[in-house]
């Protein structure tokens, strides 16, 4: 495996994607106030971040709009209330889950939208539906990514087939997603290499979205970067479901491109993230998330353990080992 | 660089060193009660950990015994009060800082001691004094390690010379120590490779002691392990100065040798570490430690920032950049 770039130089192909509202929204049901989102937008622009993800394009048929904040749905007007026409270098992205979005209704032509990129999230068994969505979004004029979730539980032969199909679609970037935070750096490098080999053959980019169950989200992100992955997801203070994500402040401290600036991020952390944490929202590394990560399991049991304020780690561990 | 071992197998040469009392003692001035230390000892034995470090052999001429808990000094009788004659497979270690220990007085012959290993901590400019201490301790019958601190600020040419001298001494293990938590995995692999090349030539082992300023302590530990480092330092809940260390619970979850058991560690966390944290002791990743790590600086300013309960990250960052 070849290393791409040196610590002292920088790779201009790297794109940082802020997912604070989207993955962080899984912590607070997307109830961020406009002031917070506007400050985040301003901070991302000032920090030189390339993309900011505003949330999901979730189906209003499937999800009750009264039960979630507006960033679960990302109506065009709600984004425009924050960014106007977005006359900045920051691009705007939203995520759409295969099977949980009315994309033919809710995704309008790019010419009428401030959104730049649609990120399509799929499991390995819904690749054909994902390819249909990619095609639709590309025809509408958007940049697209495909995020194959829970890859740590996918059969390697199926993954190979999926990557080959996806690389031949209109998609721009294929994401390596460690949904369960279970992968070690050596596995990430091996997978990243696999993704890159297929993607580069068809002129596609590769991205990484890591979770912090084993305190490896940042390490896995920069290790993937080192072997050539170029779209790097991060969130402010690592805010995200369960153990959270790669911290934006760690990532920008690592990247050497002078276009990035840590200062606006630090100001956002002290002025917005610390008060948000003090409202009682909880995310980040903890023993229960480590255990689901180590066992390559969905974090839902750990999230319930956290909500119940349990501390009996050993009993929880035994319950995870019982998989019959 | 060759990978040693596969994720599915295990390397019998690996030794896990618990430093909870020694590095964690820097958080609470070594005031652990005997109940805590005894429970830690029992947990380490049950978990299959190879070494437990009880603290420092600090000079009572330099340090006032009234200002520190007893594990700053590790009197023979104090250790025996916990372990008796230590009829277990767990070996006992203490650390001795070059220039801050009266080793000729305080380190007694191994035949009269339950201590198995003396870890000698040095900076690059006190290598000759360290070699004298290695010689003394080896003559006394102990296993020895040399821990070269703050290696991220050492000139590479001096490090090469130091490694060559040390590898020819009686020392058993040479430690790569990331005192400032500033090193990235790719730097750790490169340094580990350098240490290993010299060490293996003279039949020595290499160890790693990582700090968690950039959430990389665990990642750097397992990456060093992957290229052949075999002595791995960790602490319960990552307890240690400032940002803390590699978490024992993460490390044992990673290692595949069936001799290790996570269960006693989890019980120790819930029964001992959680109550300890609730007394108000603070350690672990935080923005101020990340910043000193990114700037390759001693964490003392971040420790002061924490003690003063400051939250003005951006101002703190600017103060770090001012190095004149």
TrEMBL record, chains A, B:
InterPro entries: 2-IPM_HCS-like, Aldolase_TIM, PYR_CT. PROSITE patterns: PYR_CT. It comes from Lachnospira intestinalis. The keyword Manganese applies. It holds the Pfam family HMGL-like. Residues 14-270 form the Pyruvate carboxyltransferase domain. Keywords: Manganese. This is Aldolase catalytic domain-containing protein. Coiled coil: none annotated. SUPFAM superfamilies: Aldolase (SSF51569). PANTHER family: 2-ISOPROPYLMALATE SYNTHASE 1, CHLOROPLASTIC-RELATED, HOMOCITRATE SYNTHASE-RELATED.
